[in-house]
Description:
It contains no helices and five strands. By secondary structure, it is mainly β. Helices cover 0% and strands 49% of the residues. It has a five-stranded antiparallel β-sheet, with no helix packed on it.
Amino acid sequence: MKVKYIGKEYIGTAFDPDKIYEVLSIEKGWYRIMTELDEDYLFPPNLFEIVEE
């Protein structure tokens, strides 16, 4: 699945607002995503817009 970040907290550090990110896995409803810091973390899905299933 591919998503776009629509939150406000992590722009400039972990996410580029114009970039599409690949969801590596879904764990307990949260998305595991590789950030711009080259580390993968879990994030709540309400911070993202799905652009491709």
